[in-house]
Design a protein that fits this description.
This protein has 220 residues and is mainly alpha-helical.
Length: 220
């Protein structure tokens, strides 16, 4: 198989994998709702944290590793920890720029700039979500799509898929319409910050650039 055919095949596999991930993710939400009827601890902070962490490992990370192998890439290559200066600079810089969109309004409105409580929800927002989402979206999906498209095109496609990944959660939490129509904090904001995460990962040649930018954005 020549390079062009291989890149087309990789892109097709990426789209199919994402479709399967979305179907499984919807199933995970339905399963949790069903289980909570008999297992009330699943609705607690710890219960939800453990459930969603396990679900993300199975539904997001396992397919991401499979995609990497199909694209001929390794986890070590994706994280590229040796390039730490680049991902600290790009991830930190872009992350802080994105964070200003939260810091400045909160400061002007007299609201707290830093989190006021530390719990399992915050642990998810600062550790699990940035690491797992970036490994899947920027590491596996964007990395695979750049074999078929230019970086700019791959980043836009990945960011659209990133928004779609949030849709089941919005629906089951009853905030889908709000997030699809709100110009700030909804789907448009998710799309735009995703472009920033993708750029940070691309320029730093490490998914850690995206993870750090994502973490700082979520933190503020």
């Amino acid at each position: 198989m020549n390079r062009e055919a291989a890149s087309v095949q990789t892109a097709k596999l990426t789209y199919l994998a994402f479709a399967a991930i979305m179907a499984a993710w919807i199933g995970a939400w339905l399963l949790k709702i069903h289980l909570e009827q008999n297992l009330s601890w699943l609705s607690t902070g710890l219960g939800s944290f453990l459930y969603w962490s396990a679900a993300k490992l199975l539904i997001w990370i396992a397919p991401a590793v499979w995609l990497l192998r199909k694209a001929g890439r390794s986890i070590r290559e994706v994280f590229n920890l040796a390039n730490w200066k680049a991902w600290l600079a790009w991830g930190g810089g872009i992350g802080l720029l994105l964070a200003l969109t939260g810091i400045i309004p909160n400061y002007l409105q007299g609201k707290a700039i830093f989190p006021t409580s530390f719990d399992f929800a915050l642990l998810n927002v600062l550790v699990i979500a940035p690491t797992f989402e970036e490994f899947l979206m920027r590491g596996a999906i964007q990395g695979s799509l750049t074999k078929r498209y230019s970086f700019a095109t791959a980043n836009v496609i990945t960011s659209v898929l990133f928004v779609l990944l949030h849709v089941p959660g919005w629906y089951f939490m009853g905030v889908l319409a709000e997030n699809l129509t709100s110009p700030v904090g909804g789907a448009l904001s998710i799309f735009l910050v995703s472009l920033g995460f993708g750029y940070a990962a691309h320029r730093s040649r490490s998914v850690m650039g995206g993870v750090l930018a994502h973490l700082l954005n979520n933190f503020f």
